[in-house]
Design goal:
By secondary structure, the chain is of the alpha/beta class. β18 and β19 form a beta hairpin. The two termini are about 45 Å apart. It binds flavin-adenine dinucleotide (FAD). The site of flavin-adenine dinucleotide has 40 residues, from α3, β10, α8 and α15. One of its GO terms (molecular function) is oxidoreductase activity, acting on CH-OH group of donors. This is GMC oxidoreductase. Keywords: FAD, Flavoprotein, Signal.
Length: about 550
């Protein structure tokens, strides 16, 4: 059912998007006593918030596909109603955003993840207290099954032994976030009691208890309503035939809007609101959907939204080892092994409490490129491949990458990655080759291991060159950067879209808080780091004085 918003109500803060950035910041702002409206375009997800999407064997329980770790891979089998159909990359458009659909891998950031690319005020020393807060609320675990056991670890053991023989040290990764050099460990997940945990179970739970916190789902933010650099409200429209429509206002004078719609979604919303490079705003102006209602061109704010785009550069290798045991997590959707389903339903234990497709080990190293920049590499293994004894290991090139891409908007208002960020720089490529060469050398010594990809006799450079630089072949779903934070104001030739308070340049009450503000790549999967950034942003935003108009109102 689609109903109009209450035109008489206004909010101190309207937060758009309920992902890794949006839920935590909405919680923090409501904790500070502000009235908050969190707007999410997708439907309910987790069972604890009355989500309903589930296979038949979960009927009669309060669990959904989003809660059961063994079903997380289902997004690749059938993303209908879960992914964002307006994007050309995979992302979750449900309550919780990526934190509802992702693999729940969860890492404390390496100090360099902040120190190398984030601006002053956002360095590791500034962020540490926020990281600590995040890990107090969401500790994470290396043993997701409630009984504390790890299941089907043959792949971990075979590769782990090889890594140790090759000089790697086994660690508990989040006990040593700064040790990302020749180390490996078990995957760490935001799972608790065998179910997906994370922001949906923590930040959203505390926010929901407050009378000053309000949540709308199935409601799309179409555009920001603004006069010059001041946003007065947000135009909403129903999604999936449900939700709310109409203009919802921020508190006159003092209200603020936080855009947390993800790296693609936040950029898209800014484009539709007349904020971005002229070529993109011209596309929106020329569109059938927005052309007649778009803000006048003399109000456009020219910022490099959509540029500085980045993602981990993925390179998949595949090995086979006779000890490896494949588990059919895909089959568990319709036809789970009865004993495994029972164990999960009764005890939240067993293989289905482990994230599909049995992720781990995760290993790290650092390599210096020919340009002198040290780059971080993460190898992430999973039991899946061409044969039942195969393991795929994705090599992520992270902190230190210099290649960047761009996302843009199309006439139908879908977005696309128009310049892929992968390996545009020769130094990035040199390190990818170095990393693959290194791990091949180590794993080749594992007894009985055979190479599936690349073939044992294929030269590493030729192999790396053979993997296309496309989202399909190299994408990692870790998009960052379209609304970069920094002091170099993008209106005057810099690359930054938001200032050090996460405020959009040229505006006085509009902020962006999500992965899109990351200036560069991080070492590991980004969720924990995004939540820490949201914690920091909440502190910064709450400390900001109200815009000048508010001071005038108060004096008059
Ligand atoms: C399949 C997959 C697996 C992943 N695995 C991992 C992992 O294991 N570990 C990890 O750390 N990271 C993982 N990631 C990445 C991680 O989930 C994302 O980096 C993170 O969720 C991004 O946070 P965000 O707040 O920027 O955006 P998101 O979490 O994407 O949230 C954006 C939200 O905004 C909503 N939205 C967008 N536009 C609008 C609008 N106009 N109006 C209203 N709402 C809107 C969306 O529906 C969405 O809910 C994975 C991602 C995917 C897709």
């Amino acid at each position: 059912q689609c109903t109009p918003v209450d035109a008489n109500k206004s909010y101190d803060y309207i937060v758009i998007g309920s992902g890794a950035g949006g839920i935590p910041i909405a919680d923090k702002l409501s904790e500070a006593g502000k009235s908050v409206l969190l707007v999410e375009k997708g439907p309910l997800s987790s069972g604890i918030w009355n989500g309903t999407m589930k296979p038949s064997w979960l009927e009669g329980t309060n669990l959904t596909r989003f809660d059961v770790p063994g079903l997380f891979n289902q997004i690749w089998a059938d993303p209908t109603g879960v992914n964002c159909p307006d994007l050309d990359v995979m992302a979750g458009c449900v309550l919780g955003g990526g934190t509802a659909v992702n693999s729940a891998l969860y890492w404390k950031p390496h100090p360099r993840d902040f120190d190398l690319s984030f601006p002053d005020g956002w360095k590791n020393s500034d962020m540490q207290k926020h990281v600590d807060t995040v890990f107090k609320r969401i500790p994470g675990t290396t043993t997701p099954s409630k009984d504390g056991k790890l299941y089907l670890q043959q792949g971990f053991d075979a590769v782990g032994k090889g890594l140790v023989a090759g000089g790697f040290k086994e660690i508990i990764p989040n006990d040593h976030p700064d040790q990302k050099n020749n180390t490996f460990g078990h995957s760490t997940f935001f799972i608790e009691n065998g179910e997906r945990h994370g922001p949906l179970r923590t930040y959203l739970a505390t926010a929901m208890e407050r009378a000053n916190f309000n949540l709308l789902v199935n409601t799309n933010a179409r555009r920001l309503v603004r006069t010059g650099g001041h946003v007065t409200g947000v135009e909403l429209e129903c999604a999936q035939g449900q939700g709310r429509s109409g203009i919802v206002k921020v508190t006159p004078g003092t209200g603020r809007v936080i855009v947390s719609a993800g790296t693609m979604g936040s950029a898209k919303l800014l484009f539709r609101s007349g904020i971005g490079p002229k070529d993109q705003l011209d596309v929106v102006k020329g569109s059938a959907l927005d052309g007649s209602t778009m803000i006048a061109s003399d109000q456009w704010i020219n910022l490099p939204v959509g540029q500085n785009l980045n993602d981990h550069v993925g390179t998949d290798i595949q090995i086979s080892h006779p000890s490896i045991v494949f588990y059919d997590f895909y089959g568990a959707w319709n036809n789970p092994v009865k004993a495994d389903a029972d164990k999960y339903l009764k005890e939240r234990s067993g293989i289905l409490a482990q994230v599909a497709p049995n992720l781990g080990p995760i290993a790290w190293n650092q390599f210096q490129g020919p340009d002198g920049i040290v780059r971080h590499i993460q190898w992430q293994a999973r039991i899946e491949g061409r044969t039942p004894t195969s393991m795929t290991i994705t090599q992520y090139l992270g902190t230190g990458t210099v290649s960047r891409g761009r996302m843009t908007i199309l006439g139908n208002l879908n977005t696309r990655v128009s310049t892929v960020p992968y390996l545009r720089d020769a130094n990035d490529k040199a390190v990818v080759i170095q990393g693959i060469d290194y791990i091949r050398g180590i794993l080749s010594k594992v007894p009985d291991l055979t190479w599936v990809v690349p073939a044992a006799n294929q030269n590493t450079t030729a192999f790396v060159n053979s993997v296309p630089a496309t989202v399909g072949s190299r994408g990692s779903n870790h998009w960052v950067g379209s609304c970069t934070i920094g002091t170099d104001d993008g209106r005057t030739g810099g690359k930054s879209v938001v200032d050090l308070d996460t405020k959009v340049y040229g505006t006085d009450n509009l902020f962006v808080v999500d992965a899109s503000i990351f200036p560069g790549m991080m070492t590991g999967n980004p969720t924990a780091m995004i939540i820490a950034v949201a914690e920091r942003a909440a502190e910064k935003i709450l400390a900001l004085k109200a815009p000048a108009s508010r001071s005038r109102i108060m004096r008059d």
